[in-house]
Amino acid sequence: MKRLLILLVLAGAVKAQAQDGSGVIKTNPWGWFAGQFQFGYEHFLSEKMSVQLLPGAIYSTGTVSITDSIVGFFESYSVTRSGFIVIPEFRYYLADEAPEGLYIAPFGRFRTVTATVDEDPQSTRRREIMGGGFVLGYQYKLANGLTGEVFLGPQFKSINTTFTGAYQQYDDLDLGESDGTGIRFGLNIGLGI
């Protein structure tokens, strides 16, 4: 919540300097709980079209376990995940004027995350996810330049995974995403500038 407040204060300062209402600064607060911190910008090209870029950093800690099927015990290891994500998007507003109303948006998506076993820093798993798709969303102008939006749609992706050290011996409880088709959904909040 503190980060959101800082973002809104900074965006307010930028808004005070901007006179043309050319875009919206945004973030996806759901991602914060998963260790994915995205902040981006939607720029209006016309009354009906805009482009958006949502880059972000990924950082979280968790555990993975090893199961010994012969002896029947579990061992847990702490893991640190770090990386980045970039989502470029083109939007077309179907009824209203950007940035309000129903829109359709094709997007691209690149995400890379490296998981490192804290007790064995030479053991890592790197996952590179590349894909795209489209979403149907609705953005609404709230008071004082604030915006809120929800979106949902299919995404298509391929994943490349590489291991170093002994990471493959760890039971992959933190698989996350898989190849193929999935669903992209979310909630963004923003401030018009």
From the structure above, extract its key features.
8 strands, eight-stranded antiparallel beta barrel, 2 helices, mainly beta, 193 residues
Provide an overview of this structure.
This protein is mainly beta and 193 residues long. The chain has 2 helices and 8 strands. An 8-stranded antiparallel barrel has the order 1-2-3-4-5-6-7-8. A hairpin with a 4-residue loop joins strand 3 (49-68) and strand 4 (73-93). The radius of gyration is 20 Å and the shape is elongated. Residues 4-20 have low confidence and may be disordered.
SSE order and pairing:
Blueprint: H1 2-17, E1 23-27, H2 29-33, E2 36-44, E3 49-68, E4 73-93, E5 101-117, E6 124-141, E7 146-164, E8 180-192
Antiparallel strand pairs: 1-2, 1-8, 2-3, 3-4, 4-5, 5-6, 6-7, 7-8
